[in-house]
Design goal:
7-stranded antiparallel β-sheet; 2 domains; alpha/beta; 9 helices
């Protein structure tokens, strides 16, 4: 189907100011109708890697998807989903235990609920080593690969979640409009701000067995000035999950994992430009419930030739995932090959850029 990047408005046929004669209107309507049934004239795209067929990435992987024991949950900014240089696609194709949830900016208002798994529920009995399960968007459901029936389906079939443990309404850029939690009546919790509550050892201990977070967004209706609410995602965050994000309290792998009882079963990664990643972090306060980990690597990203790197050590999503897995100790054979695929994708973009420049100079 052809999508037009502009809106066409037709005048009232009875108006003396009608911009198009009826004959031309009829012809244009016929052309638009044909566009819905004729195959698209755009270049063919690979359904797996979403790249143009002539630069498909799929054949560049030297082995089938690698078995990564540490699960990866990628929170992907909506602007990255179809970006030609997005590297999360390489993680999804190259690793078996990867889930991607699309996250949008909060332009009006978003409501979050955080629920504790009920005793004997599917979530409560989930093995910490199991894969994450989540729902993203209106009807799309990601199914768990460890059970025939997804965790989300099992949760929906129970009486779970009669009330949320934590709920918050967030405005643009993370402004807190309202905040509530089940510990309100306990001494010392009434006057705490959201950041203090989320940092509370008591609350974090209550969430240590995992939790389910749901985000409801508000967006503008296409044909009116009103707003509609929709469920953007529902994610089950397994126990021993860690956020890969360089906050002030983030630990490096050597300081937070080696020589301690703490270990990582799931890694949550923000996928977007640095500005978008910071906004995602600020607009999703539940991320502050997780331990934060950072990579202490003084190196240039392979991205640096084609996308802006704020400073040394700020890496692409696939680079961050590969290096984090290696530092954690999850290093399946062939992991470095994913960086070779990424480098070849960068080469494709550089070649396209040179070709466009050459054509421009010849004019």
């Amino acid at each position: 189907m052809i999508h037009f990047p502009f809106r066409i408005r037709f005048g009232n046929p009875k108006s003396l100011l009608n911009p198009l004669p009826n004959r031309l209107q009829s012809k244009l309507f016929n052309n638009l109708a044909m566009a819905d049934v004729l195959p698209s004239s755009r270049r063919p795209v690979c359904p797996s890697c979403s790249k143009p067929a002539r630069i498909c990435l799929c054949s560049r992987f030297r082995s089938p998807s690698l078995e990564n024991s540490v699960g990866i949950i990628i929170l992907q900014h909506s602007s990255e989903k179809n970006h030609p240089l997005n590297s999360a696609r390489i993680a999804k194709l190259g690793l078996k235990n990867v889930d991607i949830a699309t996250v949008s900016d909060v332009n009006f208002e978003a409501h979050f609920t955080i629920r504790l798994p009920e005793p004997n529920s599917a979530a409560q009995n989930l093995d910490p080593d199991a894969e994450c399960s989540f729902r993203n968007g209106h009807n799309a459901t990601q199914k768990s690969q460890i059970q025939d029936e997804s965790i989300v389906d099992k949760l929906n079939s129970t009486k779970a979640n009669k009330g949320a443990a934590i709920s918050a309404t967030i405005g643009k850029y993370g402004v807190v409009n309202s905040f509530d939690h089940i510990w309100m009546q306990q001494p010392g919790f009434q006057e705490l701000k959201i950041n203090e509550v989320l940092a509370s050892p008591e609350i974090r201990a209550s969430l240590a067995k995992g939790f389910i977070v749901k985000k409801l967004q508000k967006r503008k209706l296409v044909e009116s000035k009103g707003l509609e609410e929709y469920a953007e995602f529902e994610i089950q965050v397994p126990p021993k999950s860690v956020l890969l994000f360089p906050s002030e309290n983030a630990f490096t792998v050597s300081g937070g994992v080696d020589g301690s009882d703490f270990y990582i079963n799931h890694l949550i990664v923000l996928d977007g430009t640095w500005a978008k990643a910071k906004r995602m972090y600020n607009e999703n306060p539940w991320l502050r419930l997780l331990p934060h980990m950072k990579l202490d690597l003084e190196m240039m990203s392979l991205y640096s030739e084609v996308r802006h790197q704020p400073k040394i050590g700020f890496l692409s999503t696939i680079e961050s995932i590969v290096y984090a897995l290696k530092l954690i100790g999850d290093h399946p054979e062939g992991l470095d090959d994913l960086l070779d695929v990424f480098e070849s994708m960068i080469g494709d973009q550089r070649k396209c850029k040179d070709e466009r420049l050459k054509i421009t100079c010849q004019r």
